[in-house]
Amino acid sequence: MSRPEAIRVRWVALGETQERLASLPPGTTLAQALARLQMEPLPARVAVAVWGKLRKPDYVLREGDRIELLEPLRIDPKSARRAKAAAR
What we know:
With 88 residues, the protein is an alpha+beta fold. Helix content is 20%, strand content 25%. The longest helix is centred in the last third of the chain and has 11 residues, at 77-87.
């Protein structure tokens, strides 16, 4: 079986709702993809996930992966639910 010349990944940057597509060489790591897609330097508190799971920079991307840059939570979800319930 031949190796593809490129893999396609999707990515969503901070605060954006629209996904973008990118073609990358097979074997590209998450760190290499971020550099290539010019998403660096990232703020220190930004987390990077693939399909909602936090991944390390050495994670090797696969065809169809979705890279997500995640902002820190502004409010704890449990606290938000409690406040909403108390307001009722």
